[in-house]
Design brief:
The chain has 265 residues and is an all-beta fold. The protein is built from one helix and 20 strands. Strands 5, 10, 11, 12, 14, 15, 16, 18 and 19 form a nine-stranded antiparallel β-sheet that branches. A five-stranded antiparallel β-sheet has the order 6-7-20-13-17, with no helix packed on it. The longest helix is centred in the first third of the chain and has 7 residues.
Length: 265
Amino acid sequence: LDSASNYVVRAVTARSQSTPKAFATERADRVPNMNFDDWTAIGSKKTWYAAKDLSETDITNNNYWWDSGNKGANTISSVNPTSQETEVVVKGSAAKLSTKAVFGIMAAGNIYTGQFIKTIGTKGAEIKFGRPYTARPLKLTGYYNYHSGTIDKVKAPYTSFEGKQDSCHIYVALCDWTEPFTVNTVDGKLLDFSDPGIIALGELKTDRSTDGYEKFTIDIRYRDTVRKPTYIVLVASASKYGDYFTGSTSSVLYLDEMDFIFDPE
């Protein structure tokens, strides 16, 4: 079946046929720049954004779906934990997410659908998670290449993780919120997967280093098949506990050629 199309169906046997019934399929929309081919570096510190045709005076055009912690890291340095990768790729360009120490403060390489709003002090940030989205995909696919480092930066309640292997995290959440979710890392206001506004969720997390790129497929599991999403949160991080300033400053996650699957197998 084609997306966003009208059909008529009826059951037919050797002896009879039912009354025709009309139905319409939903749109099979993708998120812009899921293949991470488009990038723009803005300002004197060359802050990387996974979008094209952005400018220093206006980064809020229709291409601006993805953001990262780069603007926060750039506040105190010229470091971009998230950047365009043109050599270690599947095709075109990829996203390179590198967890780094910025003046002793851990900054996880990450990318997400949403908007970085502001830094709070030297160790916190306010972020808006989610972009408007109404489709209902069944799977998220893509390619990842991960180097898991040994955790050398920790903060409560994860101080016991020091010396263990870091984990990457990729997840997608479909939500019926009325507005984006506001993250505040200083107040500890982070997205909780038990949030009742999350209709569907899928995730990949692993501490295993890969030998080059590997394809991944994440099943998106629906908690409710009647409610329709209004927002999508797509997140990838080289350090799963980066929100808690816990991870390895040698962890690197490459991400490329993501896509959605809408048809059941």
